[in-house]
Specification:
This protein is α/β, with parallel strands linked by helices and 276 residues long. Helices cover 37% and strands 18% of the residues. 35% of the residues are buried.
């Protein structure tokens, strides 16, 4: 579990190889739907349009990351790239902010406590620079952000138990079941409909209904439009703001072969072979 920059440092080490894949590891900005003003769809879109995706990949992950354009990664069964996209565009972000009722950020000052950007202090070496980059990009369009690093135990309690963090960076959520419907149950289904870890307090009756239908549908042709529809809704509403997909990487002896990616991001020793 080295950082991306530590892996970069090993690429030139004698006898060492570094390899990786885009699997199910990601970084996203979690906005709590129960905390105003993040219940405002135009504000969420403005924030998404202000995100410095390239800088995040470069500063936080030594360019071993790419912009994430969906709420699921390509390795998940049923993945489709949704139509709604929010590439970085300051002009669009400012326009959306005005449509949200906060021209040039005016009026957001009364929500100062909501704009405390939380991230895990133990991973400050790369999450800290990412948070600072986000803070700067949002300031440029009129959105004030304060940084709020927290210990892992505290942020986990508030994110997963209390579910009261207004805004936070998350880089630990990854479905080990490589299927869109499995991931939907983990992150986006409401608690009353069987959701497990809906840290954004996201709720959409259509998503809940389509999830319930897809969960028991054995006909692939009938399941596909349900799975596609869920992804289109989540992206258009921005259940959370996808930032980047990050490479799952390994550093290993050049004599070692057989390293394979598995959805739990753990190696299988029986896959490996060591040359004499």
């Amino acid at each position: 579990r080295l950082t991306a920059r530590e892996f970069e440092g090993l690429r030139s080490a004698r006898g060492v190889k570094v390899a990786g894949v885009y699997g199910n590891e990601t970084l996203f900005l979690n906005l709590n739907w129960k905390t105003p003003p993040f219940d405002n769809s135009k504000l969420r879109q403005a924030i998404a349009a202000a995100m410095p995706y390239r800088q995040i990949a470069a500063i936080g992950y030594a360019n071993q990351a790419r912009r994430w354009e969906a709420h699921y990664t390509e390795v998940l069964n049923g993945y489709v790239k949704p139509d709604a996209q929010f590439p970085q565009d300051q002009t669009r972000a400012k326009a959306l902010l005005a449509e949200a009722g906060f021209p040039e950020g005016k009026g957001l000052e009364k929500y100062a406590d909501a704009f405390r950007l939380a991230f895990t202090a133990e991973r400050e070496s790369y999450l800290g620079p990412i948070a600072t980059t986000i803070q700067s990009a949002l300031k440029d369009v009129g959105i004030p952000i304060q940084l709020d690093p927290m210990p892992q135990t505290q942020i986990a309690d508030r994110r997963l138990v209390k579910k009261d963090l207004p805004i936070s960076i998350s880089d630990t959520e990854k479905p080990v079941g490589p299927d869109v419907i499995y991931a939907t149950k983990l992150f986006f289904v409401s608690a009353g409909a069987g959701g497990v870890n809906n840290m954004a307090n996201y709720s959409n009756a259509d998503v809940d209904k389509m999830f319930a239908q897809a969960l028991i549908e054995s006909d692939v042709a009938k399941r596909e439009p349900l799975v596609r529809g869920i992804q289109q809704i989540l992206q258009s509403e921005l259940a959370w703001i996808p930032l980047v997909e990050t490479r799952t990487q390994w550093a290993f002896s050049e004599k070692l072969s057989g390293i394979s990616w598995h959805p739990d991001n753990s190696l299988r020793l029986f896959d490996l072979k060591l040359a004499p």
